[in-house]
From TrEMBL:
Domain of life: Bacteria
Entry-linked SMART domains: AAA
Membrane topology category: Peripheral membrane protein
Subcellular location: Cell membrane
Protein name per its UniProtKB record: ATP-binding cassette domain-containing protein
InterPro entries: AAA+_ATPase (IPR003593), ABC_transporter-like_ATP-bd (IPR003439), ABC_transporter_ATP-binding (IPR050763), P-loop_NTPase (IPR027417)
Entry keyword annotation includes Transport: yes
Species annotation: Streptomyces desertarenae
Pfam families, alphabetized: ABC_tran
Length: 353
C-alpha cells in the first residue's frame, strides 16, 4: 500500500471524478426451470441490475447497500469483470472490466465476507506468498505491505496457523490483508463485518479507514450494518430491485426514510421511564431503557441530557435496519425514491442528497 500520492501517480486515463463509472448498466440472468406437467423448460428472466449509472471519484469510500437480492453482489461481480453486463458501460480506472479482467485484477482487491479467497489448508503466510507470485508483486514492496497489514490488523502470531483453524474475525482480517498486498487502487468489500463481534468489527473498520485515508484506495463497501456506513462512508448509494434509489449522505437517507434510531441506556438502578426532550422511551426492562429518536438527529445532546438527569452507566446507539429505512422510503412515497419507470420506460433518477 503506497501513499495517496502514489495512488494518484498510478492513474491511467481515468478522470478523478469518474474513477469508477457506470452508465445504464444492466444484468439479466436467464433462469431455466421445469414446471410440473410441462415437458419444455420455461425460461425466466431475472433483471438483477436494471439500468444503473453512477461515478465514484478516486479515493472515495462509498457504501453500496440494499435489501437481500437487490443486485449488490452482481454489480461488484461486473466491476471485477467476473460477470459481463447485458447492457450499458462500465469503466474502472479507464478499463472495461469484462474485456480486460486480467489487466484489471492487479489493480483491484476483493473481499467477500461470506467466502474466503485464502487456501483453507495452508497457513496465512503461504496463501500470501502464493498471491505474491500470482500478482508478481516485487519482494520488497510485498514485505512492506505485509508488515503493515500484520501490524494494523493484528495478525502477528496468526501467520503460521492454517486458515481453517482461524476464527471468523481472524479469517476476515486475513482476507482483507490478502486483498491489499498487491497494492490495489480499488477495494471491493462485500459484507466485510458480517458475523463479527463488536471488537473485530471495530478493528476492521479502523483499518479500512486508514487504508482509505493514508493510501488513497477507492473503496466500494456492501454491508447490511449501517454502523459500517456511518463510521466509514461519506456517501451511500442504495440499490433496490436492481435500481439505484438513493445517492447521497447517510443523514439524507434517514431523512428520506424518516426513520428513527434507538438509544439503549443502562442506568445504575430501575427508574420510571426516562423523560427527555428529543426522544421517547419505547421500552423499559429493569435498569435498561430504549429511547427512539429521529435518525437524522445527533445522539450527543440527547446523551448529555440523560447523563445530567439520570444515573447513566452505559449506552449504545442502534441503527435501523436498511430494510426498514427502504420500506419507509417507499411508504412515504419520497419523490422519485422508487426509481419507477416513467411512461417511456425511462427510470426516474435516484433521490440525491
Ligand atoms: N447466477 C445467477 N443466476 C440467476 N439469478 C441470479 C444469479 N446471481 C444472482 N441472481 C439473482 O439476481 C438478483 C440479485 O442478486 P444479488 O446476489 O446481486 O443480490 P444482493 O443484493 O447481493 O443480495 P444479498 O444481500 O442477499 O447478497 C437476485 O434475484 C438473485 O437471485
Amino acid at each position: 500500500m503506497g501513499t495517496r500520492e502514489d495512488a494518484a501517480a498510478r492513474g491511467e486515463g481515468a478522470g478523478d471524478d469518474g474513477f469508477i463509472e457506470l452508465e445504464g448498466v444492466e444484468k439479466v440472468f436467464r433462469v431455466r426451470r421445469r414446471r410440473a406437467g410441462r415437458r419444455r423448460r420455461e425460461v425466466r428472466e431475472v433483471r438483477a441490475v436494471d439500468g444503473i449509472s453512477f461515478r465514484v471519484p478516486r479515493g472515495q469510500m462509498v457504501g453500496y447497500i440494499g435489501p437481500n437480492g437487490a443486485g449488490k453482489s452482481t454489480t461488484i461481480k461486473m466491476l471485477t469483470g467476473v460477470l459481463t453486463p447485458s447492457g450499458g458501460r462500465i469503466r474502472v480506472a479507464g478499463v472495461d472490466p469484462s474485456r480486460e479482467r486480467m489487466r484489471l485484477a492487479r489493480r483491484i482487491g476483493v473481499v467477500f465476507g461470506q467466502r474466503t479467497t485464502l487456501w483453507w489448508d495452508l497457513p496465512l503466510r503461504d496463501s500470501y506468498a502464493l498471491a505474491r507470485r500470482l500478482y508478481r508483486v516485487p519482494e520488497a514492496r510485498w514485505r512492506a505491505n505485509l508488515e503493515r497489514c500484520v501490524d494494523l490488523l493484528e495478525l502477528d502470531g496468526l501467520l503460521d496457523v492454517p486458515v481453517r483453524q482461524l476464527s471468523l474475525g481472524q479469517r476476515m482480517r486475513g482476507d482483507i490483508a490478502a486483498a491489499l498486498l498487491h497494492d490495489p487502487e480499488v477495494l471491493y468489500l462485500d459484507e466485510p463485518t458480517i458475523g463479527l463481534d463488536v471488537i473485530s468489527k471495530a478493528r476492521v473498520r479502523s483499518f479500512l479507514r486508514r487504508v482509505n485515508t493514508e493510501s488513497g484506495v477507492t473503496v466500494l463497501l456492501t454491508t447490511h450494518d449501517l454502523t459500517d456506513i456511518e463510521q466509514l462512508c461519506d456517501r451511500v448509494m442504495v440499490i433496490d430491485h436492481g435500481r439505484l434509489v438513493y445517492d447521497g449522505a447517510l443523514e439524507g437517507l434517514h431523512r428520506a426514510g424518516g426513520g428513527e434510531r434507538t438509544l439503549v441506556v443502562d442506568l445504575a438502578r430501575e427508574v420510571p421511564p426516562v423523560r427527555v426532550e428529543g426522544a421517547r422511551t419505547v421500552r423499559v426492562e429493569g435498569p435498561r431503557q430504549w429511547l427512539a429518536f429521529p435518525a437524522a438527529a445527533s445522539a450527543a445532546p440527547l446523551v448529555a441530557r440523560i447523563a445530567a438527569e439520570y444515573p447513566l452507566v452505559d449506552l449504545s446507539v442502534r441503527e435501523p435496519d436498511i430494510e426498514d429505512v427502504i420500506a419507509r422510503m417507499y411508504a412515504r412515497g419520497a419523490a422519485g425514491a422508487r426509481g419507477d419507470a416513467g411512461p417511456d420506460g425511462a427510470q426516474a433518477p435516484p433521490v440525491v442528497s
